[in-house]
Design goal:
Layout (H helix, E strand, L loop, with lengths): L2 E6 H14 L24 E5 L3 H9 L10 E3 L8 H6 L8 H15 L5 E7 L3 H17 L4 E8 L9 H15 L2 E6 H11 L13 H16 L14 H9 L14 E9 L11 H9 L10 E6 L12 E8 L2 H17 L4 H5 L5 H21 L2
Parallel strand pairs: 1-2, 1-4, 2-3, 4-5, 5-6, 7-8
Antiparallel strand pairs: 7-9
Length: 387
């Protein structure tokens, strides 16, 4: 009971909702509430849900098990943020009615309920006004208020082809804030999630992409988050034959071997989480883990690039028959997103396109210049790390 879960904007609330479904908290299939790291002692989720519009949260209320949330932790604004980072970040600040104030107050109360507060997990989008703008400001406020707590962002990047004319500015500004104020980012790309959700449906024809629902994509992301964040306890491996090599092939199937410029992709570190009642063949030096390191292109200068966590049970499978492998990588494919965002945002900024939309909410040249510098530095560090 050391973590607070913060759901911000439409995307963040929908993904978190699927996470609670995946973990069996909504339908009651999770029976060990007193030991559940996602809930307080009274059985209510340690989550604060905020959005500038009521549609998603009202829908979530109807679908959620009655009493799962504290009613006071469902925070709704009266007006959207126009898919504008500056509007979400700055509007309004000095009012007890502001979403920022209300959210920080509810987060404070949740922190006070913790036995030992260790940090906050934030679910949000990089492109929406609320998810990106308010999400950025919340990270800044949480870091200032609770400097010793960890902040983990579960962020979703929009389709590269474009969802909104402001998305490149929003991504630029949001990522720069996350770089400054968070301790880690689980980054998902809508394009990549769409391909993987399609594969999970057993379909390979690109023409049926339109058949992949938003729910399927959110479920995929929630499943990945559950695979990483549900606690594990290392145990003595038992005998058994689980085809981990095959699972590694499945996990690495969609990895691009090189960037858009032809440079080989690499990883500076990997976290692999294996859950099964048979883990005898999933040791750090096993063929499966060596195959995983090769597929992710682990850098030679890191002598121990892989961290392996194992667990004998999976909360998502009370029968104990399911086995899963989840991998989190510090992967150089982020450079493609950074390059694309910097290029598009810089062209728009040079042409002064849409700048007045941000300026009217107090976002000036200094904010943009600092964001450009931050992301350019991150890009340069990733490029040099693979040398």
């Amino acid at each position: 009971m050391s973590t607070v879960w913060l759901q911000v904007g439409q995307c963040g609330n929908q993904i978190a909702q699927e996470l609670w479904h995946t973990l069996g908290l909504v339908d009651g299939s999770c029976r060990k509430i007193d030991r559940n790291p996602f809930c307080s002692r009274d059985g209510k989720l340690s989550a604060v849900c905020v959005d500038s519009e009521s549609k998603v949260i009202k829908k979530m209320q109807k679908q959620m098990k009655k009493g799962l949330f504290r009613e006071s932790n469902l925070i709704v604004g009266k007006q959207g943020r126009g898919k504008n980072w500056a509007c979400g970040y700055n509007k309004p600040l000095n009012s007890e009615e502001s979403l920022l104030y209300k959210t920080m107050e509810r987060l404070r109360k949740e922190v006070e309920l913790r036995d030992c507060y260790s940090g906050t997990v934030l679910f949000h989008s990089l492109s929406g006004g609320t998810g990106a703008g308010l999400g950025s400001h919340l990270c800044e406020e949480i870091r200032d208020e609770y400097p010793l707590g960890q902040i983990l962002s579960v962020a979703v990047a929009p389709y590269q082809t474009g969802e909104c004319p402001l998305q490149h500015y929003n991504i630029l500004l949001c990522l720069s804030w996350l770089q400054r104020y968070t301790d880690g980012i689980f980054l998902f790309y809508n394009d990549d999630v769409l391909r993987r959700a399609l594969a999970s449906m057993g379909k390979k024809n690109i023409r049926v992409l339109s058949q992949v629902s938003l729910l399927s994509m959110n479920t995929y992301i929630a499943d990945c988050v559950a695979g990483l964040l549900f606690p594990v306890s290392n145990f003595e491996p038992t005998r058994g034959q689980v085809f981990w090599d095959s699972m590694v092939s499945s996990v690495t199937h969609f990895l691009d071997p090189e960037s858009s410029t032809g440079s080989p992709h690499y990883s500076t570190s990997l976290l692999s989480v294996a859950r099964s009642n048979h883990c005898s063949l999933i040791q750090p030096q096993s063929s499966a883990m060596k195959k995983l390191q090769r597929a992710y292109g682990c850098v030679s200068w890191n002598p121990f690039p892989l961290s392996l966590w194992t667990a004998s049970c999976d909360m998502r499978d009370p029968t104990g028959q399911r086995h899963s492998l989840t991998v989190c990588a510090n992967h150089s494919s982020i450079v493609d997103l950074l390059k694309h965002t910097l290029e598009k945002a810089q062209k728009m900024y040079s042409a002064k396109a849409y700048i007045h939309w941000y300026r009217q909410y107090g976002c000036g040249e200094g904010d943009f210049e600092q964001a450009f510098d931050t992301l350019s530095s991150v890009e340069a560090e990733y490029c040099s790390a693979g040398e």
